[in-house]
Inverse folding.
């Protein structure tokens, strides 16, 4: 009992297990501030700091993924347009209107181009290369004008078939003959130039 009176704090110095060291608290006004990304956080705001860091890391990750996806899409579009361009150039110099493999390749490329435009339809404004692509697709879609079954119709409807409808073959043959007669002023050459313009715009990016 004498220990209690000798030691107002109530500690028994003879028992090391009961020995306690009181923590040193810093005054609230003197608490160190934490700086992060030009922002200042108080020690009692550590949860907010952790949340801010996690949010920023997640945002940066999403932006990086979006950037990589964008690069992939643009690269694929260039390759697709190059393929489409080479098919038109082949038709310009060779009568392959009856070749179902050619028609199938042309049709598959066409479907992929349509998907690219459809996936961007909700955007308020299209980049220049997509605006040019949209205009190109409309031109091909409506050839020849004032007809019910256009080239775009056959390219959209006949994919993977081992035969070509006669009206489709006639359209391809007309394009081939037009290229032989008019050369640089032909429809196919104009389409090739349009594709080249879109590709050039993509390379500038």
């Amino acid at each position: 009992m004498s220990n209690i009176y000798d030691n107002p704090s109530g500690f028994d110095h003879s028992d090391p297990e009961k020995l306690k060291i009181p923590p040193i608290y810093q005054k609230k006004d003197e608490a160190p501030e934490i700086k992060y990304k030009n922002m200042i956080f108080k020690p009692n705001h550590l949860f907010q700091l952790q949340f801010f860091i996690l949010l920023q890391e997640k945002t940066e990750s999403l932006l990086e993924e979006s950037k990589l996806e964008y690069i992939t899409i643009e690269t694929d579009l260039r390759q697709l347009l190059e393929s489409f361009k080479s098919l038109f150039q082949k038709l310009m110099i060779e009568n392959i209107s009856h070749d179902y493999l050619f028609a199938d390749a042309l049709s598959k490329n066409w479907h992929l181009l349509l998907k690219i435009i459809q996936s961007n339809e909700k955007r308020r404004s299209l980049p220049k290369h997509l605006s040019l692509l949209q205009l190109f697709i409309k031109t091909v879609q409506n050839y020849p004008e004032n007809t019910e079954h256009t080239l775009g119709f056959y390219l959209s409807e006949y994919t993977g078939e081992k035969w070509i409808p006669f009206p489709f073959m006639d359209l391809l043959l007309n394009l081939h003959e037009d290229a032989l007669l008019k050369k640089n002023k032909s429809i196919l050459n104009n389409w090739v130039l349009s594709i080249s313009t879109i590709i050039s715009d993509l390379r500038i990016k």
